[in-house]
Specification:
Length: 432
């Protein structure tokens, strides 16, 4: 056996051994119905020392800001409500980056702005800095009445979850599994894509988003062997709720000039406020957290999308000053569903090779669902990103052998070419 062949054998043995170790560590009680969660034995989540998010996040942030604006520009249609999660999408693709082929990895780095050292440490750190819980959030009582005089702000809930769903028996790359365990804190949910895998993935998404997102894929290719998922959930109260009586049936003028009627929530308070040529903005902080919503209002006829560009947001942040502001804002409650492959392809992500995850896998489907509810008391929002990887179809035949006329056969001993049997088939329907 040559050196290359020996290496292939050893790598195959190592992968099978690692998969066996995963199976030994199975946690049957964890994970959604229809799945079995296995974790990498002996692999602990990396906990990076030092206060604050540190350099990994600082190196990732510019790329995330640019990606978010580029994707918004690619998918947002004038006059259509849009919500998406750049963090959730990028983290799902960051997980996939751990098993990407070199050409695919280069495109991922360019589209998402991943730093040269890779995105994994940054996403690991972000999840610890932003998230308030490592557990699935309980569904809140969304119909409970609230009173400004009696109901205080609840602590914020932020959940950032990673999921990996693998066809039972699939030989997954050991280094890929190690990276997901060490940096994303996830094992592999072993499922059966010929049976109830879609239900298991949906159950996971529903649990991680407190019931806000109940379905990930509308369909899955029957050849699907692995799915990467990311879920982001936020439930946060305003530091200053909108307690003034609302302005009822106020006029809201759409971009096309059409006027619709809606109630406007109102509050007057000392709030961070900024303005510049053609725009104004206010910061609405969430209680008990470092999170805030920036609401940016272009002048009439101005571009909403332009105000989300990284340089525009940086300018806004630098201009905020505490000001006595009277704010009138509509409630909103809507969702967006995206097929990511086409817009990401336009942004430069065209390669689909991920052999570091498993031999023969390619990225076939990429979907994103996000929703948001904003009212007088705060915000509840959720997003789920799903990446589906089928097994590659076998390559097309290079030759055609169609035995539809008489043919000969020989049963031979290959080393010596001694024929054990010889014959011909002149009529395969004749017997005896």
């Amino acid at each position: 056996m040559n050196r290359s062949g020996a290496r292939d054998v050893w790598e195959g043995m190592y992968r099978r051994l690692f998969t066996a170790l995963l199976a030994v560590a199975a946690l049957a009680a964890c994970g959604p119905p229809g799945s079995r969660l296995v974790t990498a034995e002996g692999v602990e989540r990396n906990l990076y020392a030092g206060p604050g998010p540190g350099p990994p996040v600082a190196n990732l942030r510019p790329g995330l800001a640019a990606f978010g604006h580029a994707l918004f520009t690619a998918v947002a249609e004038p006059g259509v409500n849009t919500v998406l999660s750049p963090l959730g999408i990028a983290q799902a693709y960051g997980m996939a980056r751990a098993g990407a082929d070199p050409a695919t990895g280069t495109e991922l780095d360019e589209v998402f702005g991943f730093p040269p050292e890779g995105p994994h440490a940054a996403f690991n750190t972000l999840s610890r800095v932003i998230a308030t819980t490592d557990e699935a959030p309980p569904p809140p009582d969304r119909d409970a009445p609230r009173d400004a005089q009696e109901t205080g702000a609840s602590p914020p809930v932020v959940r950032l979850a990673s999921g990996l769903f693998v066809q039972d028996g699939l030989d997954v790359g050991a280094e890929f599994l190690r990276t997901l365990a060490a940096e994303y804190g996830t094992g592999a949910h072993q499922v059966d894509f010929s049976s109830d895998a879609a239900e298991a993935i949906d159950a996971w998404a529903e649990e991680q988003t407190a019931g806000r997102i109940k379905k990930v894929f509308d369909r899955l290719d029957p050849r699907t062997r692995l799915v990467i998922a990311n879920a982001l959930y936020l439930k946060a109260d305003w530091a200053v709720p909108f307690t003034a009586p609302p302005e009822e049936a106020a006029a809201f003028t759409r971009a096309d000039g059409r006027v619709v009627r809606t109630d406007l929530m109102r509050v007057e308070a000392e709030l961070p406020y900024a303005s510049g040529p053609g725009w104004q903005a206010v910061e609405l902080a969430y209680a008990g957290s470092e999170l805030a919503m920036w609401v940016v209002l272009p002048d009439e006829g101005g571009s909403v999308g332009d105000r989300l560009a990284p340089e525009a947001l940086a300018e806004l942040g630098g201009r905020l000053e505490t000001t006595r502001v009277g704010v009138a804002l509509p409630r909103w409650d809507f969702s967006t569903s995206l097929d990511l492959k086409e817009p990401l392809g336009r942004l430069g992500l065209r390669n689909t090779g991920y052999s570091g995850i498993a031999d023969g896998l390619f990225l076939d489907r990429a979907v994103h669902t996000a929703n948001i509810t904003v009212d007088e008391w705060g915000t509840e929002a959720a997003a789920v990103t799903g990446l589906a990887f089928p097994a590659a179809a076998p390559p097309p035949a290079e030759a055609v052998f169609r035995a539809d006329r008489p043919f000969a056969f020989a049963i031979v001993h290959r080393p010596t070419l001694v024929p054990l049997f010889l014959g011909q088939v002149a009529d395969p329907t004749a017997t005896g």
